[in-house]
Each structure stands twice: as structure tokens, then as C-alpha cells.
Amino acid sequence: MRGYRCIACSQTLSTDFRGFVCPSCGGNLDITYDYDAIIDEIEESGTDGARSIFRFAPFLPVSRPDGGFPLRIGKTPLYPAKRLGASLGMRNLYLKDDTVNPSASSKDRASAVAVRRAMDIGADAISVASTGNAGSSLACVAAATGMPAIVFVPESAPVAKLTQALSFGATVLAVRGNYDDAFDLCLEASREFGWFNRSTGYNPFTREGKKVCAYEIWEALDGRAPDRVVVPTGDGNLLSGMWKGWRDLQAVGLIDRPPRLDCAQSESSAAICETLRKLRAVGDDAIDWAKVRVAQVRAESVADSICVDRPRDGLAAVRAVIESGGAAITVPDSEILAAIPEMARQSGIFPEPAAAAPLAALKAMRQDGTVAADELVVCLVSGSGLKDVAGALRATAEPFVINPSIDAVAAALQH
Ligand SMILES: Cc1ncc(COP(=O)(O)O)c(C=O)c1O
Ligand SMILES: [Zn+2]
Predict the structure, then answer these.
(1) Within its chain, how far is the Cα of 178 from the centroid?
(2) What is the pLDDT, as a whole number, of residue 40?
(3) 343 and 283 share a domain?
(4) Predicted pLDDT of residue 51
(5) Does residue 195 fall inside a structural domain?
């Protein structure tokens, strides 16, 4: 780690900086690296065989855990989705199955790096605002490492996510309000009580955890980059992290060109796509990033994990889509819900609504010709369907309720 650079105004800061956002303009910070030192380290020791994201330690801004990390975070499978791909007329579709992380979402990647950072600087407790997954994830990783965690969620968070956080022993504060209210309260309380605030986007270390997903895709494709990665997007941190990962690989000479990153949002929670459309209407070429304002919306979506009024890593996400040449796709909630059983039936992977959004977006991109049949496309499946069973149930048929008789079985089979 070399220091920080503001994503909006480009101000640089040294590694001694202990704040979270740019002291000049309030923008989010990007962690910078000495890539020559990383290259030397990889040549010397390689990426070791540890079972977690810390095998990519040379690329991470935190100390390597002694004796390994206590949970297997990351190293998730990249599956060729042959049947699902065929249904879309595609030959090279892959699913990156992040549902198998310890708390069943991509958020564990960010929690692992944030918790390591909290330990590195001697923090006593770590806090987070969350639509649900970041909270259950932080609670999980904190439990494994013995760090107290305080989780702020909107009162309406899906019960499975709340139950995870409670079971892992976090202090769970269900705020009467939406995610944005929980976010602001977490910010204030963390300052007041001196907690290390892991909140997505605001904390620059979360992006560094998410980026490892790109390295794993690269590794699973035998050192190649795909043509596209389709990323479900709320705050935009998953997207900006994915972009950081590919840019790291390019910076150390491991890939020639990064993939396009496509931003998949619900049309009723589309702040980042809206910003991208406005910027593209005036032309991408001469954007002054210090002047760009990310749109705010009144978000209302069944995909709770990507239901965000004010994206907390919006500017970095917008830059990722533009710099990678990706697309901004909004899909109706009905298509997001329909994509849950569609993915599940044709791949064996059960996504929560947000994690089904990339499939809905990819279908739209196939229909309008944005994506060609032979492109190598990865959809990020960022969270498990078990986290929001009520959402999935809205898109499936009811079971047959039958008497315990063979005639009833036969009658049910007639339907
Ligand atoms: C399952 C899932 N998918 C996608 C996202 C979107 O990530 P971000 O808010 O960084 O855009 C989240 C964030 O909560 C999530 O939990
Ligand atoms: Zn700044």
C-alpha cells in the first residue's frame, strides 16, 4: 500500500491517514499501491496456497493473518453455465458463485479485509450500516476473529439476514427508516463511540476485499480476462471493487486488457445507471470527475440488497463502467424475480433477488444485441436465495399439497 487517492479530486494522502473520506472534498478514497513491489513479491513467493482471499496478500493493504484466516472466504467456484447459456443462445456463459461464502454473500470479501484493517490499527469494535448482507457478513467474520460488531440495518431487512447477524452475536440495531437512515446513524454513532466503520464504499478497505473476485475469475480462466462481467449494483462497491481487481492485474502485467463491466440495477433503484445515461448523453471523453454528481433516487425494489437511494460508492462505480466500456442496464423487478427460478433450474445455483439481476440484465443485452453469442460473459451471483425466501417464493409455483396416497401422487402428476 502506498497511500490513498481521492476518486473525485485526485488528492493523495499517505498511509498514516486514519480517516475514511477525502479531507478536501469529502469524496471516497481509493487505496494506491507500489505495483513494482507487488511484482517483486509475487515473483519471490507467488500467491500462497492459503484457503482464503489472503493468498493474494501482495495485492492487499492489510497484514497477512498469521496461520491463515479462520474462515474460507473467497476461492468460490466459477461454473460454466452450459444449459443457462444455451437458453440465451450463448456458448461461453459462466456464473461466479459467491453464494458459498461463509455468510452466503460477496460481502465476506470486504468484511475480511475490513476486519484485518481494524486489527492492524488496534480498533476495539467494528460497525456497519447494511441492507442486510454486509451486517450478517461482518457479524460472521467478527465472530470468527473475536472482534465485537455493531450492525445497523433498516427495520425491513429480510429476516434471514437479521437472524444471521443475531446468531453470530453482533449487536443488531434495526433502525426505523431505510438503508440511508441506517447509514447516517452508523456514521454518527461510530464517530461518537470510536468504532471502526466498515460501511460499504465509505470505508476504502471494502473495495480492496471485493477486488479479489476479479483475481479468482482470472485464475479460473487460466490467466485470461472474460469479455464482460455483469455486476448487480446498489452502492456500487462490488462494481468498483471488480474494476480495481482487473486494473491491478493489468498494472502488474498479468492481463493485456480488462473486461467490460456491466452495471445491472433494478429500474426502481437505478441511481448509478441514471448518472451513466446523463454522462453519456453529453459524451464520455472529457468528464471532469471532480464535478460529477451521482444521482439520488427514491429507491423501492424487491431486490433489497441493491435498493439504495444514494449510492455510497457511486462515483467509483460510474468510472468503472465508463472506463471499462461497459453497459448500464435497468430491469424491472418482475424480471429480476423471474430470473431467480430461471437461474436455479438451469444451473443449480439459487440466487437472492439482487444476485439474479445480472441474469435479467444479460437477457436484455442479448435481446437488444449488446452481447454477442460467443462472448465470454461472467455473471456475478452475489448472494444466496436462502437469504430471502419470501422473494424467491413470489416467482415459483406452490407445492402440491396431497393426501398420503399413491392416487394423490398420480393426480398431482397430471397437472
Ligand atoms: C447480494 C448482493 N448483491 C449485490 C449487492 C450490491 O453491491 P453494492 O451495494 O456494492 O453495489 C449487494 C450489496 O449489499 C448484495 O448484498
Ligand atoms: Zn477529494
Answers:
(1) 20
(2) 87
(3) yes
(4) 64
(5) no
- Do 12 and 100 have their domain in common? no
Per-residue model confidence (pLDDT) at position 47: 55
DSSP string covering 218-249, please? HHHTTS---SEEEEE-SSSHHHHHHHHHHHHH
**86 and 26 in a common domain:** no
Total domains, the chain: 2
- Judgement on whether residues 26 and 89 belong to the same structural domain of the protein: no
Rounded to the nearest whole angstrom, what is the distance from the C-alpha of residue 410 to the centroid of ligand 1?
43
Contacts of 345 (CB under 8 A, 6+ apart): none
Dump pLDDT digits (tens) for 219-241. 999 999 999 999 999 999 999 99
CATH of the domain at 322: 3.40.50.1100
The answer to whether the CB of 312 is under 6 A from ligand 1 is: no
**pTM > 0.85:** yes
Judge whether 329 lies within some domain. yes
Residues 6 or more apart whose CB falls under 8 angstroms from that of 102 comprise: 71, 72, 73, 108, 140, 141, 144
Residue minimizing CA distance to atom 15 of ligand 1:
305
Q: Is 373 helix (H, G, I), strand (E, B) or coil?
A: coil
Beta bridge partners of 153: 174
What residue ranges of the chain have pLDDT lower than 70? 45-51
332 and 235 within one domain: yes
Q: Is the CB of 76 under 6 A from ligand 1?
A: no
Residue 67: predicted pLDDT = 82
For residue 286, what pLDDT is reported? Answer: 79
Domain presence at residue 14? yes
In this structure, the residue with its CA closest to atom 1 of ligand 1 is: 383
Say how far residue 192 (Cα) sits from the centre of its chain.
28
Q: Is residue 389 part of a domain?
A: yes
Judgement on whether residues 210 and 278 belong to the same structural domain of the protein: yes
Q: Which atom of ligand 1 is nearest to the CA of 272?
A: 11
Q: Which atom of ligand 1 is the closest one to the Cα of 210?
A: 10
Question: Are both 19 and 94 inside the same structural domain?
Answer: no
Mutate to test the pocket of ligand 1, among 130, 229, 238 (most ligand atoms within 8 A of CB): 238
Q: Which domain holds residue 27?
A: 1-32
**pLDDT of the residue at 392:** 95
* CA 330 / ligand 1 centre spacing (Å): 15
